[in-house]
Design a protein that fits this description.
alpha+beta, 158 residues, 3 helices, globular, 3-stranded antiparallel β-sheet, 2 domains, binds zinc ion
């Protein structure tokens, strides 16, 4: 599929094990699995789905009578949508501690792959960590993620 007009709306409907996309009433196509990539322009592009906004790639996969919507993005971009939901408005040192703790838990969970059977890494609930996407990001939480980039907690066996 080609590019859509900036600001255009895409409607996704599950039908017979397929995800069907339409834009302004015009059919775009259908498949069991579709990826939507916002075109990067200026400060970046994003996707709005339901009441949330999401960075990077959105993958829609037919499942049962509906479909899964999975946001594919780098770990630290995911963290930017986790911190506000997990700790919220807090002093910077608390935000940095949460960033390291959340990143550590995520790295640990990736090894156990709790949602491998469903085809994604993390769900967006407390089961993994609450993720609400770009729409809840705050400058303070983003700064905490940036200030702790690459930091994870490890326990040495022995
Ligand atoms: Zn989960």
């Amino acid at each position: 599929m080609g590019p859509l007009v900036q600001g255009g709306q895409i409607e996704a409907v599950a039908t017979g094990g397929m995800v069907r996309l339409t834009a302004n009433g015009k059919p775009l196509g259908q498949a069991a699995r579709l990826a939507i990539d916002p075109v990067r322009m200026g400060s970046g592009a994003w996707i709005r789905i339901a009441s949330g906004q999401y960075r990077d790639r959105l993958v829609l996969t037919a499942r049962g009578s509906g479909f899964d919507a999975v946001n594919e993005l780098p770990l630290d971009d995911w963290l930017r949508g986790v911190l506000p939901a997990e700790i919220g408005d807090s002093p910077m040192e608390a935000l940095k501690a949460q960033a390291v703790a959340s990143r550590s838990e995520a790295v640990h969970k990736l090894e156990r792959a709790p949602h491998a059977a469903e085809g994604y890494d993390f769900c967006s609930s407390t089961h993994c960590q609450v993720y609400k996407g770009m729409g809840v990001e705050t400058p303070a939480c983003n700064a905490a993620v940036e200030a702790t980039r690459g930091q994870v907690l490890v326990v040495e066996a022995g």
